Amino acid sequence: MNHLPTKCVAVLLAMIVYALPGFASADNADSNGNTQCPVGLVSGMTLDQEFGPGASEITHCIKKRHHVRVVYQLTHFCANEESSDADCKRPYGLGQMMATIHDYEITAGMTRGVDYQLIGIAYGAGGKLLLKDNKFAPLVKQLMADGVKFYFCQNTARGFMRAGLLPDFSKTGIPTASGLIDGTQFVTGGITATLDHELRGWAVIKP
Fold this sequence. Notes:
Blueprint: H1 6-31, H2 47-51, E1 68-74, H3 94-107, E2 116-122, H4 137-145, E3 149-153, H5 154-162, H6 169-172, E4 185-187, H7 190-199, E5 203-205
Parallel strand pairs: 1-2, 1-5, 2-3, 3-4
């Protein structure tokens, strides 16, 4: 049986011992936060000014990445499911989408369309977020201006047409999409479209 020369074994052991401090320091760097974060300030204050002395040292920041693709499932109208549409103060999912954009762009220095893409797929009660005259339409339009694409489920559209929430083209001759916020696109099914994106490597978020 062949054996490694004693000199080779010694060299290998030396290399392992030399590398260990590097691994330890990398682990410590992760646990102690990222001193290069943030690139920008969401609130206009440093982390220590906003959260107290030492906050920056215990804050873990995401790494600037490329080709990040995220799908938000918009399945409700209101963040508080117990509120009626009329009483709803916070829309479902839209605030989280805006927060994601701020963290990616301001904190991590990522660029929309290059480093990341966000889309929203609305179905069920979440379809109301894309109706042209809903109370949160201005926020949807702002997100669109920030590069977010929104898709409306055609199965949901059929239900909305029966309920009188969207024009029924086959009966009125008015395009169904005319009842949606300009720029909204269709998918044939919200669930299958979400799954299709996931199978193509998109991360799926359900707020």
